[in-house]
Amino acid sequence: MNMHASMGAAIAADCPVNSHNEWDPLEEIIVGRLEGSTIPSDHPVVTCNIPGMAARAQSLAAGFRFPKFMIEPAQQELDGFVALLESLGVTVTRPDAVNHKAKFSTPHWSSRGFCNSCPRDSMLVFGDEILETPMAWPCRYFETHSYRPILKDYFKRGARWTSAPKPQLTDELFDPDFTLPEKGEPLRYILTEFEPVFDAADFFRCGRDIFVTRSNVTNAMGIDWLRRHLGEGYRIHEIKSRCPNPMHIDTTILPLGPGRLLINPEYIDPDELPDILKKWDILVAPEPDPINDRILAITSMCGKWLSMNILMIDEKRVIVDPHHTNMMRQMEKWGYEPIPCSFLHYAAFGGAFHCATLDVRRRGTLESYF
Ligand SMILES: NC(=[NH2+])NCCC[C@H](N)C(=O)O
């Protein structure tokens, strides 16, 4: 090993932020919070991304606090999830509780906040860099502020802390005539190319290769911005999804380890995957177990494929919701060790295990898997 390489390795080992993929052994993770959660605004970029029933209910109550009957069971599950991660030896870091109901404004618009249930969406980790993403939901504009004490601490301990240009989120960014595509119609997005925007959760990382789906929160200019920012050491590949209301890749496709991809058969056509993924094993996610609880069904901000929103502890162990027995069994058949953790109530706040977390340190180095 030359001097440079060994110095690089020393820095990586000491740095509190060091993660290159979704499966290396997990050492530290940020887990979101529910305190202070506020029902998101009825801006079209919000409502077009939420299932119809929840969107209608939330539009009526936008800006109010989420009711207790939704917070309490989700909080219990969240506490259980944190305890489970700690029992597995993972360091769990939490954002501050902040009042997301507070109103804020730019010269062009004003909004209240939402919550910090999903750190996966607002920050991306590339090795020792943690990047704040330019999010398209106005109510999420200041969301990373609840993570600033953590970010400053990581920075002081050696991490690189960056942020994409803060978007303006003026009307020019949103197509005023946008409606969701009907079955059979070509996909379209609410975003224009006015300025770069992207959510971190539209990307997943496999070492030097990064994969992205375009969505109603990530435009082509956002993807280009990140491509240029990352430079020559990385390649960003776009994955085509058939999801009619795409927002966040982690209910569509996720890598489980080098050479293994979990796909949602409704949204992904394996023949349309980028060529470099064609050599990987495709593991087709089983049909999600239906959720019959009416309250859970009505309040969920997500679709049924949240069953795929799993978290890898390492290349073998994976956290899965025990409600999703098909997924639990299938994981075992594929040779994984599923660890059950009940988490269905969190869907009302935007996700499950993958969304609710940001893996900031996994033991491993930057590699090319292709
Ligand atoms: N990282 C996240 N917040 N992911 C949530 C994905 C939700 C996705 N739009 C669905 O409805 O299934």
Would you mind describing this structure in some detail?
This is Amidinotransferase. Keywords: Transferase. With 370 residues, the protein is an alpha/beta fold. The protein has a single domain (15-362), classed as L-arginine/glycine Amidinotransferase, Chain A, CATH 3.75.10.10. The protein contains 9 helices and 17 strands. The chain has helices at 3-14, 44-47, 52-61, 68-87, 119-122, 148-156, 220-230, 294-299, 325-333, and strands at residues 26-31, 91-93, 103-105, 110-112, 123-126, 129-132, 160-163, 203-206, 209-212, 235-238, 253-257, 260-263, 281-284, 311-312, 317-320, 337-340, 357-362. Strands 2-1-17 form a 3-stranded mixed sheet, covered by helices on one side. Strands 5-6-7 form a 3-stranded mixed sheet. Strands 8-9-10 form a 3-stranded mixed sheet, covered by helices on one side. A hairpin with a 2-residue loop joins β11 (253-257) and β12. The protein is globular and about 45 Å long. The two termini are 22 Å apart. 45% of the residues are buried. Mean pLDDT is 95; it is low at 1-10. Residues 118, 120-121, 201, 247-248, 250-251, 302-303, 305-306, 350-351, 355 line the site of arginine. Arginine binds next to α5.
